[in-house]
Amino acid sequence: MKRILYIQASPRGARSASERVAQSYIDALRAKGAIDLDVLDVWTEDLPAFDGAALEAKYAGLAGTPLNAAQKAAWAAIDALGARFRAADEIVMSVPMWNFGVPYRLKHLIDLVTQKDVTFTFDANGFGGMLRRQRAVIVCARGLEYVDGTPISEENLDYQKAYLMSWLSFLGVGEIKAITVEKGLLGAEARETAIAEAAALARDLAA
Ligand SMILES: Cc1cc2nc3c(=O)[nH]c(=O)nc-3n(C[C@H](O)[C@H](O)[C@H](O)COP(=O)(O)O)c2cc1C
Q1: Distance between CA 188 and CA 143 in Å, rounded?
Q2: pLDDT per residue over 39-71, tens digit each?
Q3: Which of 85, 109, 150, 166 is 20 to 30 Å from 75 by CA-CA measure?
């Protein structure tokens, strides 16, 4: 059974544009056959702080020095999160744009799991992503509309989709599809039309 890790990064639940579009994708996948869905909601997941013993564990690991008991415990929590990425066949993400980037709770998750021997390797040959088996679909919601050649363009202001694609590529994910759903702050009609269009794209992608 196809195993999907669904990372939800909007705290808006059913009112979230990114979540509604991602849900259309997941519903369409499910219509094709049973899926094993692991939902990682960054707002309700108990993400451990990345300081103290966890940070010391990272540097000890990089230096090749043994971890003490507190560092081992902190690292086990990080590796347990990483295991959910490694176990997935596909990663689906619903992500609002916040201040041109991603919400801080998603950045927290990314900082936790982007670790040597958790999601990537590093040796004499350089870096290697450990998620080479996975594909990814990312739904990026925005309040405005980003138009090439204008001041409000992805080229000028996108630290959301471009960042997520670079991050997933770094982790080895080869096939990454992005769906943007814009105009979330441009009135109810524009917003609903954008969601319907993006949801149709999402269903096509699942098919
Ligand atoms: C804290 C915060 C910051 C935001 N920053 C931006 C932004 O920089 N650019 C933008 O186009 N929209 C911005 N928005 C609007 C959201 O991206 C928009 O409402 C989107 O639909 C949110 O996705 P969601 O509905 O899935 O939560 C911001 C919203 C919030 C709450």
Answers
A1: 11
A2: 999 999 999 999 999 999 999 999 999 999 999
A3: 166
Q: Give me ligand 1 centre to Cα 143, in Å.
A: 5
In eight-state DSSP terms, residue 161 is: H
Tokens 């390797």, located at residue = 121
**Ligand 1 environment, Cβ below 6 A:** 10, 12, 16-19, 96-100, 141-144, 184-185
- Domain ranges, ordered by start, for the chain: 2-51+88-206
Nearest residue by C-alpha to atom 2 in ligand 1: 98
Q: 2-51+88-206 adopts what CATH topology?
A: Rossmann fold (3.40.50)
| pLDDT at residue 10 in the model | 98
H helices then E strands: how many in the chain?
7, 7
